[in-house]
C-alpha cells in the first residue's frame, strides 16, 4: 500500500490533512498506510460486570475503539460493514477456564492453553532447531485462509490468528473463519488424540480495530434451596439427571440432545396418560377430558409470566434474554405442535443424533458454523420446553419455596 504524506488528505475521509487528523498524535490511530492502522489508542481490553443476556447462552460483546460518532471510521453499524477482518481463536484445556465468571477480556489479554506443544520449553528438538510459531493454510469454498498459531509461556499452543480476509460483517467473518479452522482442529484431535477446545472467538474489524468477542453467559447466582428430593420418583430422577448433564456440558449439541431427550420422553408419557384417560372415559360412557390449548406467548408481558411459571420463584428477565428464548419462528405456535415428531426440534435432533450416534452417513456437521448457529438459536426454547413438560409431569418438584 502507498504511504500517506503529512500534507495529503487523511484517508479517513474527514477532508483534513493527514498531519492534522489521524497523523497528528499518538493518542489517535495513526495511519501510516492507507486503510491500515499502524498505531491504535491504548484502551482497556478487560471488563468486569454484569451483561444482559440469557444465562448459559452464547453472547457477543463488542469492544469498540472509536467513540466519536462524527468519525467517518464509525460508518456502518455495530454489526460491521464489508471489509477486512481478522479472527483469533483462544484455546483452553477442557475444564480449565481462562477467566473467572463475569470477567470478559479480548484475546490480547488472555493466556490461552492446550495440550499441543509447539515451542520450548514444552517442545525440544534433538537437532537443536527451535520453532515458536505454527503456520498453516485451510482451503474452503470461501477461499484459502492462512492461520498462525502462537505458544503460551509454557510452549503450548495458546491462540490461533487468521490473516485479514474479506467478510460482509462480524458474523460473516466468524462463520468463515470457524468453518476454515474447525476441520483442522478436529483432524488434530484425531491424529494426536487430544482435545482442542476453543475457549473464545474474537473477530477484529481491521478498519476500526473494534473487537467482537463470543462468550457464553455465566449462569445466575441463586439462593441455595433443596427441593423435596425424598418425594422424587425414580422416573423424575432420570429426567433430572439428564437436565443436570445438559447444563454441565460446554457442547451445545450435547446440551440439545439431553434436553430434547427429556421432551421426547415426557411427550410420550403425556400421550400415554391422555390416551388412557380417554379410553377409561369411553368405557364409562363419559366424555373424554379436554385439555387447554397451550401456545408460546407472543406478547412480552405474557412471556414473562410463562417463564416465571417454570421456576419455584420469579426471576428477572432482560429484553435480550426474552429475544433469545422467544425467536420469531415460535411465537404463537402450539406447544404440542412444537414438540411433535416431524417439527423443527425433532428434525434438528435427528440431524445431530445421526451425526454423532448413528452408523449411517451424518447430515449435520459439528464443525459447520451454520449448523452450530442453528442449534444455538433453538437451544434456549428447547430448555424451557423441557422445564414446561417437567413441571407438568412432576408439579411437586416445582413448588414455590
Summary tags:
401 residues, alpha+beta, eight-stranded antiparallel β-sheet, two-stranded antiparallel sheet, 10 strands
Descriptive overview:
The protein has helices at 170-192, 234-248, 252-283, 300-308, 319-325, 335-338, 344-356, 369-393, and strands spanning 46-48, 58-63, 83-92, 103-105, 134-140, 143-151, 157-162, 165-167, 197-205, 211-216. The chain is elongated, with a radius of gyration of 26 Å. 32% of the residues lie in helices and 15% in strands. A hairpin with a 2-residue loop joins strand 5 (134-140) and strand 6 (143-151). It is of the alpha+beta class and 401 residues long. The strands form 2 sheets. Strands 2, 3, 5, 6, 7, 8, 9 and 10 form an 8-stranded antiparallel sheet that branches. It has a two-stranded antiparallel ribbon with strand order 1-4. The chain starts with 45 loop residues before the first strand and ends in an 8-residue tail after the last helix.
Report a brief summary of the structure.
This protein is α+β, with helices and mostly antiparallel strands and 401 residues long. Helix content is 32%, strand content 15%.
Residue runs with pLDDT of under 50 for 5 or more positions: 11-15, 18-44
What's the pLDDT, averaged over the residues?
Answer: 81
Biggest pleated sheet: 8 strands, antiparallel
Radius of gyration: 26 Å
Helix-strand sequence: EEEEEEEEHEEHHHHHHH
Query: What structural category arises from helix and sheet content?
Result: alpha+beta
N-to-C span: 67 Å
In terms of quaternary structure, the protein is single chain
Q: Judging from the principal axes of the Cα atoms, what is the shape?
A: elongated
Helix content percent band: 25-40%
What is the number of E strands? Answer: 10
| Count of helical stretches | 8
Tell me the strand percentage band.
15-25%
Amino acid at each position: 500500500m502507498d504511504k500517506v504524506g503529512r500534507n495529503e488528505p487523511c484517508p479517513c475521509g474527514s477532508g483534513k490533512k493527514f498531519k492534522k487528523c489521524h497523523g497528528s498524535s499518538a493518542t489517535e490511530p495513526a495511519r501510516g498506510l492507507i486503510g491500515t492502522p499502524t498505531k491504535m489508542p491504548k484502551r482497556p481490553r478487560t471488563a468486569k460486570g454484569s451483561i444482559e443476556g440469557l444465562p448459559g447462552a452464547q453472547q457477543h460483546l463488542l469492544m469498540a475503539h472509536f467513540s466519536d460518532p462524527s468519525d467517518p471510521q464509525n460508518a456502518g453499524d455495530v454489526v460491521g460493514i464489508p471489509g477486512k477482518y481478522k479472527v483469533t481463536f483462544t484455546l483452553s484445556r477442557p475444564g480449565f477456564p481462562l477467566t473467572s465468571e463475569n470477567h470478559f477480556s479480548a484475546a490480547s489479554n488472555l493466556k490461552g492453553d492446550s495440550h499441543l506443544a509447539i515451542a520450548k520449553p514444552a517442545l525440544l528438538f534433538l537437532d537443536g532447531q527451535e520453532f515458536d510459531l505454527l503456520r498453516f493454510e485451510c482451503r474452503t469454498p470461501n477461499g484459502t485462509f492462512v492461520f498462525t498459531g502462537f505458544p503460551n509461556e509454557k510452549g503450548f499452543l495458546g491462540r490461533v490468528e487468521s490473516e485479514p480476509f474479506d467478510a460482509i460483517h462480524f458474523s460473516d467473518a466468524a462463520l468463515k473463519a470457524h468453518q476454515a479452522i474447525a476441520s483442522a482442529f478436529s483432524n488434530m484431535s484425531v491424529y494426536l488424540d487430544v482435545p482442542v477446545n476453543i475457549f473464545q472467538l474474537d473477530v477484529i474489524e481491521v478498519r476500526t480495530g473494534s473487537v467482537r468477542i463470543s462468550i457464553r453467559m455465566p449462569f445466575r447466582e441463586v439462593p441455595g434451596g433443596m427441593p423435596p428430593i425424598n418425594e422424587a420418583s425414580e422416573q423424575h430422577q432420570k429426567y433430572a439427571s439428564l437436565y443436570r448433564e445438559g447444563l454441565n456440558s460446554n457442547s451445545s449439541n450435547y446440551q440439545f440432545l439431553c434436553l430434547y431427550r427429556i421432551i421426547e420422553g415426557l411427550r410420550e408419557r403425556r400421550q400415554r396418560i391422555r390416551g388412557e384417560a380417554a379410553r377409561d372415559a369411553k368405557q364409562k360412557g363419559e366424555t373424554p377430558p379436554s385439555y387447554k390449548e397451550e401456545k408460546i406467548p407472543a406478547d412480552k408481558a405474557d412471556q414473562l409470566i410463562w417463564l416465571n411459571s417454570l421456576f419455584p420463584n420469579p426471576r428477572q428477565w432482560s429484553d435480550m434474554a426474552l429475544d433469545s428464548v422467544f425467536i420469531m419462528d415460535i411465537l404463537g405456535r402450539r406447544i404440542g405442535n412444537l414438540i411433535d415428531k416431524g417439527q423443527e426440534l425433532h428434525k434438528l435432533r435427528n440431524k445431530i443424533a445421526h451425526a454423532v450416534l448413528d452408523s449411517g452417513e451424518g447430515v449435520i456437521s459439528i464443525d459447520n458454523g451454520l449448523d452450530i448457529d442453528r442449534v444455538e438459536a433453538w437451544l434456549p426454547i428447547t430448555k424451557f420446553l423441557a422445564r414446561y413438560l417437567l413441571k407438568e409431569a412432576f408439579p411437586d418438584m416445582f413448588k414455590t419455596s
